[in-house]
Amino acid sequence: MLCLLFFLVTAIHAELCQPDGENAFKVRLSIRTALGDNAYAWDTNEEYLFKAMVAFSMRKVPNRETTEISHVLVCNVTQRVSFWFVVTDPLKNHTLPAVEVQTAIRMNRNRINGAFFLNDQTLEFLKIPSTLAPPTDPSVPIWIIIFGVIFCIVIVAVMLLILSGIRQRRRMSKGPTEVDDSEDKCENTITIENGIPCDPLDTKGGHINDAFMTEDERLTPL
Amino acid sequence: MACAPGPDPRGAGGGHERPSWDNRLQYLLSCIGFAVGLGNIWRFPYLCQTYGGGAFLIPYLVALVLEGIPLFHIELAIGQHLRTGSVGVWKAVSPYLGGVGLGCLTVSFLVSMYYNTVLTWVLWYFLNSFQNPLPWGSCPLDLNRTGFEAECQASSPVSYFWYRRTLNITADISDSGSIQWRLLACLAASWAVVYLCVIRGIESMGKAIYFTALFPYLVLTIFLIRGLSLPGAVKGLTYLFTPDVRILQSPRVWLDAATQIFFSLSLAFGGHIAFASYNPHRNNCEKDAVIISLVNSLTSLYASIAMFSVLGFKAANDHGRCLDRNILRLINAFELPDQSVNRDDYAAVLSHLNATQPERVARLCLETCRLEDFLDKSASGTGLAFIIFTEAILHMPGAPGWAVLFFGMLFTLGLSSMFGNMESIITPLLDMGVTHRFIPKEVLTGLACLVCFLSAICFTLQSGNYWLEIFDNYAAPLNLMVFAFFEVVGVAYVYGVQRFSDDVESMTGRRPGLYWQVTWKVVSPLLLLTIFVAYVVTLARTPLSYKAWDTQYVRFPTRQEKSYPGWVQAACVLLCFLPVLWVPAVALAQLLAAHRRKKDTGRDRCPKL
């Protein structure tokens, strides 16, 4: 009698957890992609941890605080590592609605991922969309900061150039009395006799006289 | 003898001495910087790839020798001899050709407007490169944070960042949208940078050019060294440079090579004339012309090697990821262990599965992954820089650093070309005596930059990119070819080759040889006429249409081909022909003036009899 009951229970269990069954979800893990050489093998102990995490998530849902590990059924485990799971009610005769399971998993996704050292891409719950992390926007966009720096430098440089140009022009318009070097003062002057300038050649110090330029100097070197 | 104060050589009064370059290196770098621009980076590699790889170099070099160098020599020699900007030069060659100079000024103004807008986009990307991860690497989330934005999901994060976050483009050119304040701010910044560098003419520009002309070469070298060490780079280089000599039979290749050389050297803008006018009279302009043209072409080649190595890496990367996606689909469908199939085994596993369970494999919709398909994906212009290359950078380790280097290089390349454009506007204005002696040069350059900035605001509208393509395709090419033709014919026939050769001999000490005489008199004018006619014929045959980024389009993200509305077509025609109208207008005005003068002298003579 007891054996019959046991067989009945396992048969019902088998019916409850089926690929594409009612309220069943497929899970796919990519452990080797996530961990590389540190990948662990997927065995029944890992399955037990998974059931525990799902039961833990369901316990956070109101009215489902009494969910036990044995209420979570796992079936069709493949080499890929992928399997199907369902959560049954305490009486173990029907599965809990998919919406409740979905909400529970979504709220605790990070804890489940963390237990297996995986993330949303390597531990996939098909048909349960994950909430994507919000982008970390700084309060001031970075481009504005750099733009401000460059613009300020340019404006300051333009101001400096304009001011130095104004100063230069004011110095020139005030006449050579403002010129600092007294030696240049006389070199820049032109001797005037009877009101006519005598020296037609440019007498600026160090200037090359065209008339005496040699053949070699006609072509400017690179 | 009274020791009286004489006139100051830098003269606030009249007798203002023409500024000159500090040394010859500044002059050479300025010309090289003007010639080497964005086109060397994103036009030449595309042409190389489309026209049979290494084989394209043959028509390119032929065009350089027959057309590029002779025209360039004319511009440098005539500017150096007459020591004035483009307007004064052509008026001096012949009063009837004065319109050529004014036309060059107009075209330079139009080009400055939209060229700096491209620099604005480059600056925007540069500013956004200082963060990790790069903003064009991932899509933004949609409203309920369960997925990505639809537009981004359908196209790609890189395209989304370009079309939506940068341009915020509308679906149609008639829908102008609003001014994008981000682009407006970057436009103001880039015009401020241009103003800072050209504020005192060549005095300030000569200092800035050391950095802006040399920095791109440094970055290209860094990219070359890094690119060659990336996986897939060498395969990309060999595929893209393998010459296909049969392509030389098509006349289209020769036409494009001649056109590319013409625009690559920035001829007929008046910028080189302006630069050369600040030279001392005795300077070997012949050597300069050859050096600068060769440096320009070698830079194009160098840049394409660097670009192709990175693009080869990108193609190999895309191919690998295509294989990975297929492998994942296979593993998920057939429940094979994770990571059990790597890229080398893929073909064998697929054929085995295809033999045993073909229907299941067919239902999977696997992509075809061929490396050649990815290598063939080519683009030129903004598409290459802002979409393809930015995506390639995403996969290089240390991506933000590479992005900063790349966009910094593009900005300095464009900036040195902008110097030439601005000088071709400012120098003729200065020489025409537009500025009264109490208006300092800084104010004139500031006004020029301000006018260009205010006119360029129309490109910061949401439809700005469509308008920029119009300006790029119609404002410059035809007009420049016409002006270049008049330049060559004006110097060779109106001014006279003999007289011109005498001038060149007085400057360089050597009379131009047979090569120069033949190219100036016969070859270059004929070539220019041919490419002008061919260009007009090609333009007339292609319907006036543009590619719009329309999210509602059925085949989005492919861009939808739309034709221009009537008023836009009228604008295209205006842009094509308005600058050229200066030439007949000025010639007509001169004719009328000469006619009136003859009538007046005839009337004066009579009473004396």
Model description:
The complex is a heterodimer of chains A (222) and B (609). Chain A is α+β, with helices and mostly antiparallel strands and 222 residues long. Among the domains of chain A are: 13-125; 137-171. In chain A, 41% of the residues lie in helices and 11% in strands. Chain A has helices at residues 2-16, 31-35, 44-59, 98-107, 109-115, 142-173, 182-187; strands at 25-29, 72-75, 82-87, 123-125, 190-193, 196-197. In chain A, β5 (190-193) and β6 form a beta hairpin. The longest helix of chain A has 32 residues, at 142-173. Mean pLDDT of chain A is 79; it is low at 181-188. With 609 residues, chain B is mostly helical. Chain B has a two-stranded antiparallel sheet with strand order 2-3. The radius of gyration of chain B is 28 Å and the shape is elongated. The two termini of chain B are 53 Å apart. At the A-B interface, α2, α6 and β5 of A face β1 and α9 of B.
Tags for this model:
heterodimer, A: 222 residues, alpha+beta, 4-stranded antiparallel beta sheet, two-stranded antiparallel ribbon, 6 strands, 41% helix, B: mainly alpha, 25 helices, disordered N terminus
Kindly report how far apart the N and C termini of chain A lie: 109 Å
- Give the spatial strand order of the biggest sheet of chain B: 2-3
Low-confidence stretches of chain A: 181-188
| Beta-strand content bin of chain A | 5-15%
Query: How much beta of chain B, percentage-wise?
Result: under 5%
Estimated structural class of chain A = alpha+beta
Write a short abstract of this structure.
Chain B: It comes from Felis catus. Chain A has 222 residues and is an alpha+beta fold. Chain A is built from seven helices and six strands; from the N terminus they run αβααββααβααββ.
